[in-house]
């Protein structure tokens, strides 16, 4: 650059000839001639013209045809590479050039532009976007992958998220009803990708909806819009929400006992987001936008849609009801009778003649049985000999101290059944506390356990039997004796 400056200065300012400049600077006259008039710049390089005779118009058309075929392939991993195009050219067109030539041409033809998107604006209450995502939490001490049903209003960006064990139809519809209740209304359009729970076949404008989904949509009076295949940007608000929830709502990993506790945590953080968040580039905060949008939502129907699956089943001789390969216990008094089973995403409720009898957490594993100890107590009280091998007792996972104490009594089986009754009536912690008190005082009696359960106070001895006897005051007798001595 310094040499270029000297050439220009000697030529224009001092008026030296090109020969003199070359001689004084010790460079060739060719270099001086290139730069003296300023027509060439040292920091610019001309592009090489590599016109190859082997790259004919037929070869270029073949490469472009490969690109068109790739646009019809959904899986990006099965599209043409430069090497595959070269191999096909050699096999199908008898191409004689080198692979590097085809690589260069493919690179020039495959213009890689950053995707451009049209910014969208939605009126308050006009639309909401829906999607599923997954996240990891610590559920009952174990790492568990949960499914996140996500909704986001398009005008205010207010979010709603709820966790389920699966993405089945019941969870999909229940997520909608919970979301509508959370927002206080229903938008006019819901935007989805091509979910199997909503779409029977096709995609985008050609999608055919599932019958249950059409019934649900009719009940809440909204329209559905499905995205084109592989075009996730058409619902970018909720796509971004899934990652935002994982990074901001669920870090560190929540440690919860069940889905109810997890969903209460997520719900509170959704409310905090609505109250506190401000999105860059938007005039209104999420809270102000949601306040406006909430007034424009369609009102909720008087009666919510029943999202649970239901069926009628007969109670078997083990006092259980079968639903989707799993069994759920009911009171033994219902053996042989028909009951109604309603299964939501999280709970299985069983009713008889319109009255709910019991409920169980829904199990998504296969060939499992969910027992409740209280259902079998009347039968165990009649047949106490089976108590130590009863599956409902084993499934309850009771502390070993109960069986150890019962086996030290004269009638272990009957004592164990009675302890189970105390557990159902008073809770396992209270029964364990009563057993500890009895052991401390060396009492081995079910009557003492019942006594400790009925009295919260700690009694070291049994209360005396019979009438209460007041203590005799002997001070008066002493006074009489002293008075006699003075006389």
Describe the structure.
This protein has 487 residues and is an alpha/beta fold. It folds into five domains: 2-35; 57-108; 127-296, 2-Layer Sandwich (Nucleotidyltransferase, domain 5); 309-370, no CATH class; 375-454, no CATH class. The chain is built from 18 helices and 15 strands. It has helices at residues 2-12, 18-25, 29-35, 57-71, 82-92, 99-109, 169-183, 211-220, 236-249, 259-276, 286-296, 373-382, 391-396, 400-407, 412-426, 428-440, 446-454, 475-486, and strands at residues 127-139, 142-153, 159-164, 189-192, 199-201, 208-209, 223-226, 255-256, 309-314, 320-323, 326-329, 338-343, 347-352, 355-361, 369-370. The model has no long low-confidence stretch (mean pLDDT 86).
Write the layout of secondary structure elements.
Layout: H1 2-12, H2 18-25, H3 29-35, H4 57-71, H5 82-92, H6 99-109, E1 127-139, E2 142-153, E3 159-164, H7 169-183, E4 189-192, E5 199-201, E6 208-209, H8 211-220, E7 223-226, H9 236-249, E8 255-256, H10 259-276, H11 286-296, E9 309-314, E10 320-323, E11 326-329, E12 338-343, E13 347-352, E14 355-361, E15 369-370, H12 373-382, H13 391-396, H14 400-407, H15 412-426, H16 428-440, H17 446-454, H18 475-486
Parallel strand pairs: 1-4, 1-8, 4-7, 11-15
Antiparallel strand pairs: 1-2, 2-3, 5-6, 9-12, 10-11, 12-13, 13-14
Helix pairs in contact: 2-3, 5-6, 12-15, 14-15, 15-16, 16-17
